[in-house]
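2024-03-11 09:14:02 INFO queue: dequeued item HAT C-terminal dimerisation domain-containing protein, len=324
2024-03-11 09:14:02 INFO validating residues
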Amino acid sequence: MLAVACKFKKVFGRMTKNEQFAAYFEKVDSSEKKRRVGPPLEKYWEKEQVFANFLKRFRDTTLQLSASKTITSTMTWEEIVAMKIVIDETMLDIIDPSLQEVAKRIESKFRKYWGDLEKVNKLVFLGHILDPHYKLQMIAIHLGDMKFDATKIQSFVVGLKNCLVQLYHAYKPNFPLGTLTGIDDCDVDKELMEMYKNDPIKLNYHLKMSHIKKTQSQVEISNEVDKYLSDHFVKWSSSFDVLEWWKGNTTTLPVFSNIANDIFVIPSSTVTSENAFSLGRKVVDPFRASLHPKIVEALACTSVWLRGEQINLYKEPTEEEFEF
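2024-03-11 09:14:37 INFO prediction written
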């Protein structure tokens, strides 16, 4: 609203010559029992621009974290850090005392919700770590920018890694060993015995070698957390799709890819679910109160599809598009 008003700065200046417009500010506000503030002067416009620039960071964050068709769990922590830095910089700015006072009030509320990192849900950090651009190293950089002590940063990062390990061991039982390695041990042994059935000495060597390979593969699997964290970072690209990346690494990081899928579906905001209920009230109004739930669902989904992107018939359709 402030950004739009700034575009009409000259219009407001000319409106002061309008008697009806000027008379509005002469009246006493019935709720506050005092004269209304205005019309806007030049010094107010300068302050307005400063406030608009300050609040833009919060507006952009709100729009990004309220998205419903893109992953938001990977960017939650980064947006929190960005807001913290903006607030701290504004608090140190002595040029505008009124803006500084606003920043102090925002900082007290920020500290209430995000000040104690130990109380913050660890999924906020894990979503960020599972973006192959960042991993654990970026968390340490962020905490440094937020002026945390080096010892506390180290202990917190270690705690996040332990949390990843716990998640890994919780998911691992759902994946049989053969699924993780991609090798059926019984088939390998049968093939070796068939190949060297006439040479027991070589058969013995190869069976021992097969056993070593099995042991090494099990060690690699047990350290899938280390494997992911020690791999090279993904290069920055505007076309990078984190879901496609994890889909392509399902065979090398099978357990971790399943963890990533479960974390990525968590929305950063309740806006999407609230919109669903708001849409329900619009569909089921007093004049259509007896609609069957399936009809309500069909109407809601059709509304979303009509507003969605058109399917491009000149490219290879995805499975979802085929089903649609």
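2024-03-11 09:14:37 INFO annotate: Residues 271-323 form one domain.
2024-03-11 09:14:38 INFO item closed
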